Amino acid sequence: MAKQASKIQEKGTRGRLHVRMKERAEEGRKREARLMLVSLIDTFVILCVFLFQNFSAEGDIMSIAPDLTLPEARVENMPTSSVIVAVTGKSIVVEGKKVAESSEALKDPDLVIDGLYEEMVRIADLKRAIAELDDTKEFRGEVIIQGDKLITFELLKRVMYTCGRAEYGEISLAVLKNR
Fold first, then answer.
1. pTM of this prediction?
2. What are the CA-CA distances from residue 67 to residues 81, 87, 132 (Å)?
3. Does the pLDDT of residue 78 top 60, yes or no?
4. Class for domain 72-177, per CATH?
């Protein structure tokens, strides 16, 4: 049979347990917080890989108007930064600014679209002024026409003629790359 502990022994055991618990609690408070560097590094590596995969080295030279459907073609050259003219069945837009209605442009007996011509001349004058102040910049008369695939050739011809009259001789047509 096991010997029963006396009341004095019980108090001593409880006291020792109490002292040990206090010591452990103090040790826990004294511990320093540590960063889990391996997990942190893994997270940053995954983030960097994700950003590199989604980064476009060429950059977006132009954005396509929401109501515009570009034709598809085999693309040889990437576009450069230049003035963008968007032509839809409803309107003609230069650099985000609506300059003419497509229906009105077709009704005019003259090939020059007045609103488009005025805006293109204004931009050309601005680019020439910048070129005079900065030797690294020059006005080359480049324009990119984003023509909806459903517009008529007559409208496209008038837009191209107007751009040429405004001293934009380097005309490119924007298309979607055929895969």
1. 0.58
2. 22, 10, 37
3. no
4. alpha beta
